[in-house]
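Fresh eyes needed here. I'd like your take on this protein's tokenised backbone:
***
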Amino acid sequence: MKRLCIFVTVACLAATASFGQASSSTPVPSPKFALENMDRSVDPCVDFYKFACGGWMSKNPIPPDQVRWGQFNELIEHNMAELKDILEKDAKPDTKRNAVQQKIGDLYASCMDEATVNKLGAKPIEPLLERIASVKTSKDVINTVAYLHSQGIRSLFSMYSGPDMHDAKTTIAFVDQGGLGLPDRDYYLKDDDKSKETREKYLAHVQKMLELSGMSADAAKSGAAKIMDIETALAKASMARADRRVPKNRDHKMTTAELEALAPNFQFASYFADSKAPSFSSLNVTNPTFFKDINSLVSSVPVEDWKTYMRWHVVRANAPLLSEPFVQEDFAFERQYLNGQKEIQARWKRCVNLVDDDLGEALGEEYVNKTFGKEGKQRTLDMVHHIEDAMSEDFKTLSWMSDTTKKQAQEKLEAVANHIGYPEKWRDYSSVDIKRGDLVGDNLRATQFEVHRELNKIGKPVDRYEWEMTPPTVNAYYRAPMNDITFPAGILQPPFFDKSMDDPVNYGGIGAVIGHELTHGFDDQGSQYDKEGNFQSWWTPEDRAEFDKRTDCIVNEYAGFTAVDDVHLNGKLTLGENTADNGGVRIALMALKDDLKGKPEEKKDGFTPEQRFFLGFGQIWCQNITPENARTRATIDPHSPGQYRVNGVVSNMPEFQQAFGCKAGQPMVRENACHVW
């Protein structure tokens, strides 16, 4: 399950996060909506986020092994306790274990055997390093890149499978930019003091890792500089993250012969043969400019430098699973420097994450059997249908959209497929060989299985029932090429859905999440795909122009928000998520009001149903975040920080202003409010 939200056509509710603190010796409660989370000293019309979350924020500092701490993380913590109990039980050798329990239990045991891991040092990656050491020619470089890709080690570029952008029922091959060690191209290209400092820190980090892998200090220092040169060239040729959100920028289907002519030094015929992918004659080249610009680099960079570059990416990919010096150096740069994490997570947490990554649906099956019943699936599906009805009514009220486009929008909405809780069919991991005590080998074999499974889809019909997330995941997503929404069991719990709470709070929680994912089908990206998932316009030109005016409003609004220090949000990068937040809350409120028709409007705890709805929405985004992580996310995360996911939305809503009696000129009343859906 390593594909989680890595494609721009998969729109997730939240950025993926590390699992949080937990202890299975004591049951870990899931977080709940609570009045104690509020700060009533704050005027809701001045800063609704602090009004809803100020109490929680003051009582919940960021744990030392986290970089961001919020209601999401608290629920992740709850799920981690459940997963740890499952894995500790399954890790005990027992003839009564079934095949699934054996695999997840033994992988967890391999990971938890820290003594063996430390004893082995760098030995587990020696076969990969020896393979690289044997490289002699440019052709060997490409062949070795293909081999590393088969092991899940990303270098130079990437290859994967996905729905054809113009025939979403068919799976085709994609080749894409890649090969960077820093989080984004901008880290190599920006010239501010912080970016320069980060590059210096990165050079020192790469040198240290190369030394740990067996290189001399001088060779490692020289090698780090050469790696930086290669990766900077790759960064210059890479498309900016915000530009990748525009579907037409990624739409470049061509024959394999055309790709080979575009970038002959990549020797793609040889690469594709070594990839063991099924034979194909055409594919999508996501960024042709990347391959054209880097073509000369493949032949001009000395083979020895490519060997050092590939060595680095092998070490980088495997460092968290190697001995303690590798683990600590990896943590010091990736988590501590880049994101402000003070302490490394306990080993058991990292091991639970590993099993979820490598054998996610096997672990997920055990999790669902323990925690999630059919009644939860049906209850969520009922709410999804209710909110879909509200969106349908919303379409009818849009004064800026013609009847022609409304009809197309309605047809697309009716075609949305809903996946709730867990997959209809569990993934078969029987071919994955898990050997107790062989951590790196176990991870590589699980990765090989996943890479082969992905590439083997090429030329076959798209499986619209396959999931991109594991069932314990506290997240949700919409896929444009599938026109479907998915809500894993992990998120169908408090504070998002709580059967002990009143409808307004639940509609503000899981209702807003459902509305968010549905709206992704009609955001700046999703709106360019038809009901079948094809990249094809269903708009009249006039309606599209009106839509673009409204999304431009959101771009400008959120670009005015400050993430940290002098770093602003990227309004174009976050446009899809911000559109989904605004539309999702609005249609969830519409659904709630429909539910409340004919019922007496009674206050509870001093708040009206509408006020409790907004409080329920606000509290799911309560969070604290390190300045370092806020800076990193401003560059790479398409989601806005919690405070702007709340205040940015409510300041655009007359319904909120009416609910809390806000007046013109107050911060939560935008003079030029944005409204798309």
